[in-house]
Amino acid sequence: MLLEIPLNQMILFVGLMTFCFLFARYKTGLTITFCFTFYWGFIYNKDAFFTDLERSSPFLMLYFISGAVVILFAVFSFLTKE
Question: Where are the domains of the chain?
Answer without folding.
Answer: 25-79
